[in-house]
Amino acid sequence: MAFIWPEIAKGTIRLGYVDAGGIRTRYVEAGDPDADEAVIFIHGTGGHLEAFTRNLLPHAKHYRTIALDMIGHGYSDKPDHDYEIHHYVQHLLDFCDAVGIRKGHMHGESLGGWIAAQFAIDHPDRTASLTLNTAGGLNTNPKVMERVYNVTMNAVANASPETVRARLEWLMNAPERVTDDLVEMRLGIYTQPGFVQAMEHILCLQNMDIRMRNVLTEETLSKIEAETLVVWTDHDPTAPTQTGERFVSSIPNSRPLVVMTDCAHWPQWEKADEFNRLHLEFLASVGG
Predict the structure, then answer these.
(1) What is the domain range of residue 44?
(2) Helix or strand or coil: residue 16?
(3) How many domains does the chain divide into?
(4) pLDDT tens for residues 150-190?
(5) Which of 80, 138, 143, 286 is 20 to 30 Å from 231 at the Cα level?
(6) pTM of the predicted model, to two decimals?
C-alpha cells in the first residue's frame, strides 16, 4: 500500500510556489535543479501533485522531475473563470518559463494527458517527449462525463471523508489502494474557501458544448512531432483500450500501446514500480 509522505521522505525535494503568468502555482521538484530539461507530471480533473509522489524520486535519479497543481487545482490560484484547455496550456508554458525549463518530457494523466497533448501540438519546440496516461480529450461519452461531474462535484459540495474516498476509489481498481492520508490530503484541498466555485470551473469540460470546442481529433494529433508513449489500463473507467489505440494510430511518432493490467485510472500510483520502469525505459530511448 502506498502512502504520500514515506514515498518522498527519504529523498531531497523542494516544495514551494512560483508565479506562473500571474498564477501562484504550487509544485514539488527533485533531481538536478539546474537542468533546463525536466520530466513534468500533470494531474487529472480535480487532482493535485500528490498523484505522483510514488514517481517523483525514482525519476529524479535520472532527470530533473516536477509535479505541479494546475490552474484552479490543488493549492494553486483559482481565478474566477472556466478553465478550458488553452488556459491550462498557457499556464503550463508560463510555469516552464518561471522555473527555467527549456524543454519538458510531458507526462499527462487523464485531463493532464489532454493538456500535454495540446501543449505538444502548440509548442513542439518546448516538448522533449510526450506520455499520455489514460488521457482524456479524444473520447466523448456523455455517461462518463455525467459520472465524472457527479462524483467529483459531490466530493466537493458535500465534502466528507466518505465522499472524497468515493471519488478516489473511482480512480483505482481496488478500493484498498486509497490510503487514509490521500483522503485527508484531498479533503483539505476540497474544503478550501471558494473551492465549490473552482470545481464548477474545472468541470466545464464535462459540458458537451464546451468540450466539443476543446476536443482532440485524429487530425490535430497527427501534428504532434514528439516521440510519444501511450499508457492505458485494462479497467480504465473513462474509455476502453481502443481509445488508446486511436491515440497511437493518430500520433506519427508513437510507440505501441502499453496496457497495464489490474489498474483503473491511476496506474502511476496503483502499480508504481511497473509504471516507473516502463516510463523510464521510454525516456531513456527518446532520441535514440
Answers:
(1) 4-285
(2) strand
(3) 1
(4) 999 999 999 999 999 999 999 999 999 999 999 999 999 99
(5) 143
(6) 0.97
